[in-house]
Amino acid sequence: MKKIFLLIFLFSVIATNVFATHMRAGTITYRCLGGLSYEFTITTYTNTLSQADRPSYDISCGDGNTLTIPRISKTPVGNPNDEISLNIYVGKYTYGGPDTYIISLEDPNRNIGILNIPNSVNIPFYIQTTLVINPFIGCNDSPEIVNPPIEDGCVGVPFLYNPNAYSDNGDSISYQLINCKGDGGLDIPGYTLPAASNSFTLNPVTGNLIWNSPEQQGSFNVAILISEWKYGILLSSVTEDMQITIAACNDHPPVIKDLKDTCVLEGTMLKINVFAKDPDQGDIVTLSASGGPLMLANDPAVFNTVSHIDSVSSTFSWQPDCSQVREQPYEVTFLAADNYSPSLVDIKSLMITVVAPAPPNLVATSLGNTIHLIWDKSPCTNAVGYKIYRRNGFYGYIHGYCETGVPSYTGYVEIGSVNNIDSTKYYDSDNGIGLVHGIDYCYMVIAYFSDGAESYASNEACATLIKDVPIITNVSVDSTDAINGSIYVAWSKPTAIDTVQTPGPFKYLIFHSNDYNGSNMVLIDSLAGLNDTTYVNTSINTVATPWSYRIDLWNETPGNRFLIGTTQIASSIYITFTPSDNQLLLSFTPVVPWINDTFVVYRKNPVTSIFDSIGYSTSNTYADNNLVNLRSYCYKVKSIGHYFAVGLINPIINFSQKACGIPIDKTPPCPPYLVVIPDCDKVENELIWTDPNHTCANDVVSYNIYYSPVENENLELLISVNNSNDTTLIHQNLNSIAGCYAVTAIDSFANESSLSNTFCVDIDSCNLYHLPNIFTPDGNGYNDFFKPFPYKFVQKINLKIYNRWGKLVFTTENPDINWDGKDKYSGKECDDGVYFYICDVYEIRLNGIKKRNIHGYVQILK
């Protein structure tokens, strides 16, 4: 009977495994059918011999509903000895609205014997896919995974794999290793990667999975999270649970010659020869390719799969059109496999970017104070518009082979855009302000696409405004005075006036404003004739403010008086100071239409009273160091600049007002470093801190000590120490040593540093409140009372003492207790024996009054 039972048991175990061993690998993908409707495709790889067949699957749609999806095909794949079936399930579902949905499938059993999944035959197989329905993004398909998630390898030979995920929308794809999932989508207990992370790697960009050297035969499962992104927003993700089977074999994989990522201009033919060789003589090598360019509906790439003994080559050919232009590169994966069983492979990925041509024939023409740009329409009519870039002066840019757009190193800056591919004109007026005469303006234009792709840059086109208005060149302070100051103003006369329409005579009107930007322009004078181009503005305050100027040119023909044009606004150089310790920082920011290359700084010599040059700056600031605090120093600044156009004064020289400043130490010293040493017996804290004069300062004269008895509350000033050499303090007369401290340093100019580190101490380092376990209330004067050992930092207690029957015999809130062994309620002496106590101790701690519970036994012994 026992034998019969044993046979039944063994049969049931074998039958369970035969029926249960099932799932090897799988994925869920989807495509949008329009609106909120989607078609799901489940792809699984199962054991052919398993009787746990699945003619349909119930999947979770992520919105609380399930969907039954029928199988449409079951096909044996690979070597017949592998006993693997490919199963395809297809179903449709419509969602109720936009949201993020997790579509998932769970099968009761994986196949038996997966080495990195403990007890794999009893572990559910779980995969999921994230579907994002976003009306701002539109209808979107999940990535399509080209290469099957089931592969073989050999012990001691590098294993290579690439999912070769493809997005037909040109969105970016990322790859990430995650743990295989089991029951309920949770991580499988005990799951590990097949090897250490430094020998089992996945490239997050290309998707190349490399297992350097498998050491063990058997099957392993790994999971790859394949995510699709647009503008940094997650569009979808697919979890691929794949199986790798490693066998013992005497073979070496073929090797594909290295390939370099490249670009191809739309409409041109790209040809790349791919070569592979097998190190084992006599092996047949098969070279194939997969990837997005080979799957395109229009103008797909061509690569013929070829086989040959020892070595093999084939040519990848592709002539993409404008419809294939996109920001993200296309990935093509080449696979070389030998005819060994299991077949060993080499994989190389190639990234190809399809580039749009530049908008042709850019021309720039000046028109008044604007420049008119015109170019030919982009050959790629699927572009959505153009971007316009400008710089001062010609650069001579020639794009690199894969260099699209206009790189920032050229100095070009985007100034505008045209959001219509058919509109090929742009008027640059500097946002309505008007361009500056005398500047050589240069432009480039690119076409851009909806996904962010950019074409090559156009040719550079440059233009200068016609000199039909005066061009201001000088605003220079001649005299610095609060009442009798003066400024020299000069301009270049127009040389391209249309004398037919503008016969003259002419008059210049001169305006000024006591600021940088000309916000309060006032007419101050006029000059007749074109050749009188200088003016000295006198009796003004050049001490208090800068001055800005504008020159208007008028046609004064009797009966036909009109404004011809105006100069740009230009201001004088005006010095301001930021005093600090032994330093004056000079700032000078004139608003001028020309380019100031250099500012020369002069300082007055107190002996000769001559302003000597002390340095120069190419920016609008200059720091004069090593000065004496509280001493006055006087300066003036000379600017040296230019216009780009020929025929104008070069260099342009202007001077600031003369201004004086006094350095004063406004820089606080660096903070000290603090340590606090508590003394529990004396109930005091010793503070010790560093002296910044020894490290990062030279004039610290005192310290402020800040304190809070409670953590996380504002520190308040405790005391000031008025001796920089005294870097210790004893804080006494405390209720508790608990508290937080910080120190600041104060220098001779009363600048206070930031707080030092905050150092907190608590009573944990002291002898905390505790009770003895015996006392003898017999009246002999020794140990007659139950009281605590010496203690500190206790506000109160709540003590209850019970006899062995649970009757309360004593209670108190006095920390000293002093129980004489009598029943508090009857007044009688308690019997000898053991009594149980519970005590809440309220201690003065760093975070306030905190309750600590202690309990134990005390014995009365008479």
Helix-strand layout with pairing:
Blueprint: H1 2-20, E1 23-34, E2 37-47, E3 56-60, E4 66-77, E5 84-94, E6 100-107, E7 125-132, E8 144-145, E9 150-154, E10 159-161, E11 165-166, E12 172-178, E13 200-202, E14 209-211, E15 218-230, E16 233-247, E17 255-256, E18 262-265, E19 270-277, E20 284-291, H2 292-295, E21 306-309, E22 311-318, E23 330-338, E24 345-355, E25 363-367, E26 370-374, E27 385-392, E28 413-418, E29 425-428, E30 440-448, E31 461-464, E32 471-479, E33 485-492, E34 506-513, E35 522-528, E36 534-540, E37 548-557, E38 560-566, E39 570-571, E40 575-580, E41 583-588, E42 595-604, E43 611-617, E44 621-624, E45 633-642, E46 652-655, E47 659-661, E48 674-679, E49 684-689, E50 700-708, E51 716-721, E52 728-731, E53 739-747, E54 759-761, E55 774-775, E56 794-802, E57 808-812, E58 833-845, E59 848-860
Protein described:
- This protein is an all-beta fold.
- It has 7 domains: 19-247, Immunoglobulins (Immunoglobulin-like, Sandwich); 255-355, Immunoglobulin-like (Sandwich); 363-464, Immunoglobulin-like; 467-571, Sandwich (Immunoglobulin-like); 573-664, Sandwich (Immunoglobulin-like), CATH 2.60.40.10; 674-764, Sandwich (Immunoglobulin-like); 767-860, Immunoglobulin-like, CATH 2.60.40.
- The protein has 2 helices and 59 strands.
- Strands 6, 7, 9, 12, 15 and 16 form a 6-stranded mixed beta sheet that branches. A 5-stranded antiparallel beta sheet has the order 1-2-5-4-3, with no helix packed on it.
- Strand 3 and strand 4 form a beta hairpin.
- The longest helix is centred in the N-terminal third of the chain and has 19 residues, at 2-20.
- The two termini are 74 Å apart.
- Residues 1-20 have low confidence and may be disordered.
